[in-house]
Amino acid sequence: MSQRHYDMCCKNIGRPAKIVTHDGKMHKGVIKRVTPSRVFIEPLGASPGGYAGAIMVLMEDTAGDLD
User: Fold this and answer.
1) Total domains, the chain
2) Is 34 in contact with 41 (CB distance < 8 Å)?
3) Which domain of life is it from (predicted)?
4) Binning pLDDT at 50, 70 and 90, where does residue 62 land?
5) Burial track 50-59 (b if 16+ CB lie within 10 A, e otherwise)
6) Which of 23, 26, 50, 61 could be 38's S-S partner, Cβ–Cβ 3.0 to 4.6 Å?
7) What is the pLDDT of residue 65?
8) Is residue 10 one of the residues assigned to a domain?
9) Per the domain annotation, does 25 fall within a domain?
10) Cβ(51)–Cβ(37) under 8 Å?
11) Which uninterrupted H or E stretch holds 7?
12) 11-43 burial, b for 16+ CB within 10 Å, e for fewer?
């Protein structure tokens, strides 16, 4: 993960996000924890997980905007 994405994720812990990985998979959820190589989210309607290799993180104001 780039330093820019890491910093953005750290500043937005607790907020909903869309994360797109290098292989094109999209994950939607609330950012719970961030390490230099992973973003841990609580997926909307599912159990927590971590994702490496994110290329884009788009922050939204509310979970309802993530559709």
Assistant:
1) 1
2) no
3) Bacteria
4) very low
5) ebeebeebee
6) 50
7) 43
8) yes
9) yes
10) no
11) helix 3-11
12) ebeeebbbbbeeeeeebbbbbeebeeebbbbbe
State the residue range of the domain holding 41.
3-60
The answer to whether 30 and 55 have CB atoms below 8 angstroms apart is: no
Any domain includes 32: yes
Residue type, 7: D
Against a cut of 0.70, is the pTM above it? no
**For residue range 5-26, what is the model confidence (pLDDT) as tens digits?**
899 999 999 999 888 887 888 8
Judge whether 20 and 62 are in contact, CB under 8 Å: no
Q: Output the domain CATH number for residue 52.
A: 2.30.30.520
Model pLDDT for residues 37-54, shown as the tens digit of each residue: 888 888 776 555 555 544
Token pair, residue 46, equals 């599912």
